[in-house]
């Protein structure tokens, strides 16, 4: 099944696309636990290679509580993207509310050692009404 990317951001020739889906089978609504899976594609549309070094997420739940997740790479990898290449990965986000949002940035390094941040677009986390 072809994934439909609903959100995108472009920074210095790097495009980050996001598709997000609520997973009822991983959620425990009666226990106040909701779970989403998100698929990210990072595309290098610039003419320089770059390596993803770190990630920074801002996750907000439905009560307005904000948490931050910082770490090296994405799902255990620090992909290097040559011009024209893309990297895909899938991860998940649990929340204690039926809605919230995520956004953030990746820190990338070019071959010349320069470092820059690439925006991860804001995307909502929303459980269907039947799952609340």
TrEMBL record:
Pfam families: DUF525
UniProt cross-references to SUPFAM superfamilies, sorted A to Z: ApaG-like (SSF110069)
Limits of the ApaG domain: 8-132
Record-linked PROSITE patterns: APAG
Gene3D superfamilies in alphabetical order: ApaG domain (2.60.40.1470)
Alphabetical list of PANTHER family matching this protein: OS05G0170800 PROTEIN
NCBIfam families: PRK05461.1 (NF003967)
UniProt cross-references to HAMAP family, sorted A to Z: ApaG
Name recorded for this polypeptide: Protein ApaG
Underlying gene: apaG
């Amino acid at each position: 099944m072809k994934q439909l990317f609903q959100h995108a951001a472009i920074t210095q020739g790097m495009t980050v696309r996001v598709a997000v889906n609520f997973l009822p089978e991983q959620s425990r609504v009666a226990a106040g636990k909701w779970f989403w899976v998100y698929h990210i594609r990072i595309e290098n549309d610039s003419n320089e290679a770059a390596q993803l070094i770190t990630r920074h997420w801002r996750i907000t739940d439905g009560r307005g509580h904000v948490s931050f997740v910082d770490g090296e790479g994405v799902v255990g990898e620090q992909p290097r993207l040559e011009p024209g290449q893309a990297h895909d990965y899938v991860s998940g986000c649990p929340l204690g509310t039926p809605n919230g949002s995520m956004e953030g940035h990746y820190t990338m390094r070019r071959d010349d050692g320069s470092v820059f941040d690439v925006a991860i677009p804001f995307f909502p986390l929303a459980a269907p009404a039947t799952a609340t």
